[in-house]
Write a structure and sequence with these properties.
4 copies of one chain form a homotetramer. Helices cover 33% and strands 29% of the residues of chain A. Chain A has 284 residues and is α/β, with parallel strands linked by helices. In chain A, strands 5, 6, 7, 8, 9, 10, 11 and 12 form an 8-stranded mixed β-sheet that branches. In chain A, strands 2-3-1-4 form a 4-stranded antiparallel β-sheet, with helices on one face. The first copy, chain A, has a two-stranded antiparallel ribbon with strand order 13-14. In chain A, helix 7 crosses helix 8.
Chain lengths: 284, 284, 284, 284
């Protein structure tokens, strides 16, 4: 199924009667074969969210024509909408420091074909992971953090040069400046090693150890100017007990960090995540 | 949201272009407000499954008229379809033996209003639970199992007299005769105390102990003539270890049995379960 | 196994070589049959924690004599220690408001023999649950909350009159005054309906909904003067998604609240919980 | 803590009074600092199991002397016992086919220092993974399966030449001949991609799909002559639903296969697994 080319339409608009009828009729009248369809009506904001995955070959026109035609429906319902095409892979730039468990996991998913993206480069403030990244045939850029402002400008420049769509902070351990949070809003994904909102900020496993919690967690979220406070995409927890040291927590934590980031990133690249204020709608 | 009267339409039909458009347009043209919508295309059977929950007050006709009108759409797409009305509560008859953890759990959910059904009676092959059931104001019928054939005919007669829609085997520990499995196909729900297909039949916790598994489970399924082989509605597992005796497993098992049965029964009474051959589509 | 009378010895002392040897030799020389043995060395505090469950019939003396004899060993290692006897059931007083899912769950575990305690009475600030509690043959005391100080003094008096060992706040929804927190330190157990330290205080499901978390949780902890900040005994989480309203969270939450409280209380009554500063050692 | 050299003593013997006292007194009289201690009395077999981790530097003799001295205690209680020394890393040979998610995971844990073993070589019936393995500086042996008997003799010869302690079948997809199962009993670990005993044998995800289960699993076990029937070390499950194809299950399954194998192998290399008939005692 994954091998067929698909268009994915995501949209949100004020909730009212007839939205699904209008969108599904639009596709039906052109013979569009809908592979997956998801809906959500948010009662707080009064907005309606929708995601449709359509077989590209079932439609008699290309994506440019489809955009033109669908714009008529979209205007009628005041829709915010995007159309992605599985033939155009998303370009994901990965930022790492020295810890490589998330990087190792993402690169394996990428080379096995599970994670269908392009990875134009990996950027790091250390040289440690160069050889591993380059073995994959992926360019590795070393950007030391001596002058933070300059370093982040360099990172942004690299991201832009490589036509990056999404920036993943795979345990990067550095805080993105507010200006870049705004410039790339909704395009920067972080993995935080706690079950947010518990233990935001530095050394969450130490905080968890001090508090004596019986589960630890990890959170994948969009980066915003407020540290560890952006819209949450995915979370998970794992059981610990009194016998586990901070080092044990770090070890257990790595396993959930990498699966939570991998799931969250997959939802993002498959256009399954729609942001609604500071929350997310995730159509799994 | 739960307090508003709703119609729930469930259907299946051969998969083709235009089903969602036809159904959603039908509702849209009458001003129907769709509260929840779910779809599934089964690639093995080529059938399409659908569930729609509509606010009753948003439609200009009653359920009888709606049936007449919708029949036109249904015929066009060769749909098997049902319409339920939240104003007509499902009537659930519970069969128990001596173990009462599932009964206690279901009755609490019923009296707190979480499980929106009528319970016209409880039937048991023992007298032990009479006082507890009658405290709830629910009739209790004692049917001893000396003559099994006669006992099951009595049970069926009670179920029919009480206009039962669904029969729940809440750890009943007796095997329903094939004739009743056929007569009430798709209407009898069992909770089996193992993760099926592992450990079907008698004493599953003993079997699990002997095999040395590291998790035990529970399975809620429709009863068919093949013992413990009907379509699975819901399952869950819980971790055990070498230190747990059969008695410990029984204790842990009770907690998953009751939650798995409660979830499975809720899906059933909310028309969230559609049977597809020997499997289920569960629209949560 | 549960039917045999057992002594349970719990202790903590400064960590050093020879503690286990001394304690196990003490039992071995008297023929004591150890059913369960657990140890923990806390690296932060340098203290050693231990729990031993011994078959009473395997020892040639009664618990009073055992206390006298063991005191010699205890003095040598500067132990804080307790000895409990399974023949002396712990007396658990339950405080409830109107929500009864935890109460219903605990009373079922009690009447089925799973929870081996005495429940001398249930106290509530409402009359709603009187009939259900009294059906169990348990006295029910109504203490209205108009004058909070007087009400809590009345609750304390009832607890003392009934020789309560442990006070369980089973969704009591009222904050215990600091004076009672101190008077009954280590003897009052609360269930909080969030994964602490996230969402302490009022309306945690509303807080969780606002933040957009992807899992919700429950926490069983000892009550201290700091609200929702006492030593955590047990926690668990359950997955939710964007489609779940606050009401859905409340419904899912009830299921984890009752299992987390039931597990935490069982650990407590079986002397499996040892407090270490603001954390717990739980020997499962 | 992990950096200090430790001895790990594991043993089993007929259960009786005084075992713990004898062993702990043996260590105490020599000043031995016990880091971790675990016990289990198996009621079915009447055997007692024990694991002790001792700081090597706390003892006044080396491991050879310790063996001589401890043999006296062991003889007295008819113990089967082993002593391992953290300074002697276990030598783990990995067998793979084409699927590399488990290999990728294990090699990452090894190169990050989390999995404290030596990996003298990787053996495969395909050339696909040579470059990845050799990047790690680990020898890669290609053994084609045309003549199965000869191939397995070659594998056994390589394992022996490399002084292998443990052989890991990391999704090797070939059945070990009975003769090798016997020759390396208790030393060969397999990961099976189902929750055993459900779906033993070939294509377990297809079997799971056909049966319509709501969870899928993975099982790490010792290999015996009976296919997929050896003592289970570790298992886990993950939730799926009607919308998941076999390909989706394969994808979800990879994540639990690798964590279950990694946990099971860690327990094995840290001498935490003791076999008791066809079951395991796992001291976590």
């Amino acid at each position: 199924m994954k091998s067929s080319r698909r268009y994915t339409l995501t949209l949100s608009c004020p909730d009212r009667v007839g939205i699904v009828a209008a969108v599904s009729s639009f596709f039906a009248q052109h013979g569009g074969w809908i592979v997956e369809a998801s809906y959500h009506a948010d009662t707080q904001t009064g907005r309606f969210f929708m995601r449709q995955e359509i077989l590209a070959d079932s439609l008699p026109f290309d994506s440019a024509q489809m955009r033109t035609k669908f714009a008529v429906v979209a205007r009628q319902f005041e829709m915010d909408w995007q159309l992605s095409d599985s033939a155009q892979k998303m370009r994901v730039v990965i930022l790492v420091s020295k810890q490589d468990h998330c990087l190792n996991d993402l690169l394996h998913r990428w080379r096995s074909g599970e994670l269908e993206v392009d990875i134009p480069c990996v950027i790091s403030n250390h040289e440690d992971l160069r050889s591993f990244v380059e073995w994959h045939g992926i360019p590795y850029h070393y950007v030391p953090m001596g002058d933070k402002a300059a370093a982040f400008e360099k990172i942004a420049a690299l991201f832009d040069e490589h036509n990056g769509d999404t920036l993943v902070l795979a345990r990067f351990m550095q805080i993105l400046p507010p200006e870049l949070c705004r410039r790339y809003a909704g395009r920067v994904i972080n993995i935080h090693h706690s079950f947010l909102p518990s233990f935001a900020g530095a050394k969450p496993y130490h905080q968890a150890y001090e508090r004596g919690v019986k589960l630890i967690g990890a959170t994948c979220h969009y980066v915003t100017e407020q540290l560890d406070d952006g819209p949450i995409i995915e979370q998970d927890t794992v059981r610990i007990d009194h016998g586990d040291s901070v080092e044990d927590m770090v070890r257990y934590g790595r396993d959930i960090e990498k699966t939570v980031l991998a799931r969250g990133l997959r939802y993002h690249v498959e256009s399954r995540v729609l942001v609604c204020d500071n929350k997310t709608v995730v159509f799994k």
